[in-house]
Design goal:
Length: about 375
């Protein structure tokens, strides 16, 4: 059975600073491994190394280059040779960056660290009872083991990205219209363009000065997810509760907070899975309520699941998942963009605490996590037909 006290205990166990690639992340990995082995199960380990260039340097460098492009286009009427050379150099550097970051998990320059993924596969009842040799139907439940702290609160950082994005787009558009259509003859367009450039400059500075540290206990992000996946693993470790037609995978990724390096490496193991017969569920950042970001898992045939959502609408609701969220990326979004169907579980109410020293267990309601786990067991029964 799903137990609230056990969820509460795991929350406490995994709520400590555990920056990816450090001894603290390794500690969380060992704790999760011990929990799994305590169920008389033997997990698998996938070790990998990663560079912090992609997650900590590349975004800032890219934004600075784009701001310089904005700046160059705004002052393009001052000296055309400078403008031309600046555009050529900027575009060349962008091409180099795009080439380097096509496969971020393969980058091995800059500061290189080590991490690992932990996972275990529980076969379907048909395999367990030796009715079939193999099953190509799989459901994978994910959570990430690492945490991170940052100088800027995540909500302020997301707002800065939004402001940067829109000031850049509108600034480029206004400057293009003013200089190439009206030859710079409208002063009011010049003033608006200057304001957009100024806003873009300030937001670029704000984003650039933000830095990563190991000061967040990561209770919401993501001891909550780890606790849910561990509780569900305990539940399904009983052969009687296994699914009839789907294998269940329980995956704990490392270095999610460093450019989703864990899932990028784990993807090598599942890239050939049939997208029509595979579902993923990602648990990331749940506090006192949660949102189910659906991308192909929930449908009108899941009657019991929908009824459960309606009965608990005070703490849970459903939204359609999008492929792009400005300033946010996760294991679930990575797999969504790889065409996997599934469900992401998150919580906007706790975002103000994420990546800060205030991300502590008192911000989480274990009763909500219990409800979430119960919902997942109902959902999996619904789709196991």
């Amino acid at each position: 059975m799903i137990e609230e006290n056990r969820i509460r205990e795991n929350l406490s166990v995994f709520s400590f600073p555990r920056l990816s690639g450090t001894e603290f992340e390794k500690k969380s990995f060992n704790l999760a491994k011990q929990k799994i082995e305590g169920l008389n199960l033997t997990p698998s380990v996938q070790k990998f190394s990663f560079s912090t260039f992609y997650s900590r340097i590349y975004p800032k460098f890219g934004l600075i280059l784009l701001f310089w492009l904005h700046f160059t286009l705004f002052f393009n009427n001052i000296y055309w040779v400078f403008t031309l050379l600046s555009l050529i150099l900027t575009l060349m550097m962008f091409l180099v960056l795009i080439f380097i970051t096509r496969n971020p998990e393969k980058i091995q320059f800059g500061k290189t660290l080590n991490s690992q993924n932990l996972y275990i596969k529980l076969p379907s009842k048909s395999i367990y009872k030796k009715k079939t040799i193999n099953s190509d139907k799989n459901i994978l439940l994910f959570s990430h083991l690492d945490s991170k702290g940052q100088i800027l609160p995540i909500k302020f950082r997301m707002q800065s990205y939004f402001i940067w994005f829109f000031s850049f787009i509108f600034g480029i558009l206004i400057n293009t219209v003013n200089y190439f259509l009206f030859m710079g003859s409208f002063l009011w367009l010049f003033i608006i363009g200057a304001i957009m450039l100024g806003i873009n400059f300030i937001s670029t500075i704000i984003i650039t000065i933000n830095s990563t540290n190991n000061k967040s206990k990561g209770a919401i992000d993501n001891a909550s997810g780890v606790s849910c996946v561990l509780e569900l693993l305990r539940y399904y470790s009983n052969p009687e509760f296994r699914l009839d037609n789907f294998n269940l995978w329980f995956v704990f990724t490392g270095a999610e907070e460093s450019g989703t390096m864990g899932i990028r490496n784990f993807y090598k193991l599942i890239k050939d899975f049939d997208r029509e017969k595979t579902y993923i569920i990602n648990f990331d950042g749940i506090a006192k309520r949660f949102i189910l970001y659906d991308h192909g898992l929930l449908n009108n045939k899941n009657y019991k699941s929908y009824n459960f959502i309606l009965e608990n609408k005070d703490i849970m609701r459903m939204e359609r998942a999008h492929k792009i969220y400005i300033g946010i990326y996760s294991d679930g979004l990575f797999l969504l963009n790889k065409k996997f169907q599934g469900l992401g579980v998150g919580d906007k109410s706790g975002q103000i605490y994420v990546h800060s020293i205030n991300d502590t267990i008192d911000k989480i309601d274990p009763k909500v996590l219990k409800k979430l786990c119960q919902f997942i067991t109902i959902l999996l029964k619904d789709i196991d037909k």
